């Protein structure tokens, strides 16, 4: 078993006494040295999970360990970029990086931070408040990468970026992961963009884990099948099935041999995620070798 | 140095695309024994794919004896792929055949279907 970057057992988070919890009984394991995508609809608990892992808030139930310790203990080894990319608007880009260096003594890597900014063609003397959303994202990522973290937590990092910047910054992240073995955990809505760059998936829905595990294993556990509408899908687990006229399209988890008359393919990441989002009642599938915690 | 082009919509696994493009470069003589493959870092920086995918592709090429990893130095081509270079007699024959196929009124898709079916007859079951 590989080392663990983040592990949760019975993890719950409730804001205030009323209402539904943001996270409820989550158990999962994210291995170190990979790139994990945290996916789910709005309000699924993605941002809550990342801020808990960053040690900014404490869970109201269950346990969460990051790099083998409590999140607050390992803050120096973790980089976190929040969704709204908080930066000081009155500082210049260069001042912001200097601030990063001063706050991370012994860890800071000027070269990485400066290169990340330089790729975006940013004026080091420009004030943060004059930057576009995408340029601010680049500065926030430069700060996080300059810290030389073992674990990088990114909340919707690519949301404000144009396609070229998105490709470049994903490349920068992947290069950092390749060179230093940095574990990257990022949430995103743009599922198609994640295909190819992530190797582990955590799908959240309504505060609970829906799918968790190595991406290849999760994809291989599903089949997209097309057949006649009168075909029986037993004994397979059906995630989602739709009939149009005489035809049937379904995403299933095969349990034994399939009807040879069906056409079947392994789904793409996007197909897998969309089917699960459309079918919130589909059973949970966890392939990340965690014992189900008693909650 | 070879540059990989990843097509995310092709339905072919990303690591397989890297393996195939490397082999294609070996066949065409764009890569020769002793040449260095780009590092995983260089590949992922340019393509924004997962580093483990590149390592998986390189392991596969190594398993087939085409490349070797030298610790701390990189991954190097061990041998070329024994096929027809651009000026071989086999290519000339195929070229002449394509001209005849066109004269006979076949379009690109017809030729493609014909070629694939002949390939399937002769190379069925071979590892690609």
Describe the structure.
The complex is a heterodimer of chains A (295) and B (128). Chain A is α/β, with parallel strands linked by helices. Chain A has helices spanning 46-53, 93-103, 110-119, 133-146, 163-180, 191-194, 215-220, 269-278; strands at residues 4-13, 23-31, 35-39, 61-66, 78-81, 151-155, 183-187, 200-205, 208-214, 223-228, 237-244, 247-253, 263-265, 285-286. Chain A is built from eight helices and 14 strands. In chain A, the strands form three sheets. Chain A has a seven-stranded mixed beta sheet with strand order 5-6-7-3-8-9-14, with helices on both faces. Chain A has a four-stranded antiparallel beta sheet with strand order 11-12-10-13, covered by helices on one side. The longest helix of chain A has 18 residues, at 163-180. Chain A is globular. The relative contact order of chain A is 0.16. Chain B folds into two domains: 14-77, Orthogonal Bundle (Arc Repressor Mutant, subunit A); 89-123, no CATH class. Chain B has five helices and two strands; from the N terminus they run H-H-H-E-E-H-H. Chain B has helices spanning 14-27, 40-47, 51-63, 89-103, 108-123; strands at 67-70, 74-77. In chain B, strands 1-2 form a two-stranded antiparallel sheet. The longest helix of chain B has 16 residues, at 108-123. Classes of the chains: A alpha/beta (295), B mainly alpha (128). The A-B interface holds A 34-35, 167-168, 170-172, 174-175, 177-179, 192, 195-199, 268 and B 6, 8, 11, 14, 39-42, 44-54.
Keywords:
heterodimer, A: 295 residues, alpha/beta, Rossmann fold, seven-stranded mixed β-sheet, 14 strands, globular, B: 128 residues, mainly alpha, Arc Repressor Mutant, subunit A, 2 domains, 5 helices
